[in-house]
Amino acid sequence: MSHCSRHPEKKSTGTCRVCQKTYCPECTGSSIGICPGCVYKGLIILLIVMIVVSYSAWFGIF
After folding, report:
1. Burial of 27 per CB tally in 10 Å (0-12, 13-18, 19+)
2. In a 10 Å sphere around its CB, with 0-12 CB exposed, 13-18 middle and 19+ buried, how is residue 35 labelled?
3. Would you say the C-alpha torsion 3, 18, 40, 28 has a positive or negative sign?
4. Angle 50-29-7 (CA atoms, 0-180°, nearest 5)?
5. pLDDT tier for residue 4 given thresholds of 50, 70 and 90
6. Which among 46, 7, 53, 49 is positioned nearest to 28, based on CA atoms?
7. Which tens digit of pLDDT belongs to each residue from 29-48?
8. Residues 6+ apart with CB under 8 A from 20
9. Is the pTM value of this prediction over 0.70?
10. Where are the domains of the chain?
11. Helices marked H in 1-62 — which ranges?
12. What φ, ψ does residue 20 adopt, rounded to 5°?
């Protein structure tokens, strides 16, 4: 078993489904198998998509 990419002193418990980096129990915030960095990136992308959709609905672009 390899070590966590964020905490090198700890053993990893799994790999991220998105970026394939290893993580330890401290890094996981949920049981979906995605590291915190990828979760934050996904939330930022979701926020941007929501903003674009709301502006297109407000101004009637589509």
Report:
1. buried
2. buried
3. negative
4. 120
5. confident
6. 7
7. 557 788 888 889 999 999 99
8. none
9. no
10. 14-59
11. 36-59
12. 65, 20
What one-letter code names the amino acid at 14? G
- Which tokens go with 12? 């990893």
Of 47, 44, 16, 43, nearest in space to 32 by CA = 16
Long-range contacts of 20-28 (CB under 8 A, 24+ apart): none
Give residue 15's pLDDT band: very low, low, confident or very high (50, 70, 90).
confident
Length of the chain: 62
Q: Do residues 25 and 11 lie in contact, with contact meaning Cβ atoms separated by under 8 Å?
A: no
Backbone Cα Rg of the chain: 17
